[in-house]
Amino acid sequence: MAIFNLETEQGIKSLDAFLADHSYVEGFQATQADVGVFESLAKPPTAATPHLLRWYNHINSFGDGCKTLPGEKKSAKAFGGEAKANNDDDDIDLFGSDEDDAEAAKIREERLKAYAEKKSKKPALIAKSSIILDVKPWDDETDMKELEASVRTITMDGLLWGASKMVPVGFGIHKLQIMCVVEDEKVSVDLLIEEIQKFEELVQSVDIVAFNKI
């Protein structure tokens, strides 16, 4: 796993650049490593670091479910003070530390130029997530067809509604289980849930059943 000094602005930018090509801090699913980095951030990211903001909102959406994520939580020191102690410059030194040496400076410039050219040719990846929501009515008298139709009226740039089904929960009551695909940078899951709950005469509560990167 990459080490980032989250006490510095450069470290925050380096983490944002890392998340441009990675969905998570380690591997291909959310783990305790993500929780460790999440908790190490001194404050929520802003639109100035869009990839970090997308990742932050995704991890934040797990809520108390973060405790059940697999893996081992890394100490906050691994992303802050410890990295700073090991390297007084940036989180990763790609080009050597002898800034006064003319040859080293030349090599550094060449590598920066090559990296910039490679980055400019790489197509941007659109991070998406597949989400399954449980939408629960107030009682067995709720018109479930009207409930589903209301939910599907919600439109957002980057939101696509998918299949749905009615699932019995007992006493003649059914809940709506509906799938959607969202572009992580465009759609906030918390905001989507808030929009569904605005149909307060029909909707009692909304729960996330599944949340997977695609």
Structural summary, described in words:
The longest helix is centred in the middle third of the chain and has 20 residues, at 102-121. The two termini are 21 Å apart. Residues 80-92 have low confidence and may be disordered. This protein has 3 domains: 9-93, no CATH class; 96-125, no CATH class; 128-213, 2-Layer Sandwich (Alpha-Beta Plaits). It has helices spanning 9-19, 32-40, 50-60, 81-86, 102-121, 144-152, 189-197, and strands at 128-137, 159-170, 173-183, 203-213. It is α+β, with helices and mostly antiparallel strands and 214 residues long. The protein is 35% helix and 21% strand. The chain contains 7 helices and 4 strands, in the order αααααβαββαβ.
What topology does this entry show?
Layout (H helix, E strand, L loop, with lengths): L8 H11 L12 H9 L9 H11 L20 H6 L15 H20 L6 E10 L6 H9 L6 E12 L2 E11 L5 H9 L5 E11 L1
Antiparallel strand pairs: 1-3, 1-4, 2-3
Helix pairs in contact: 1-3
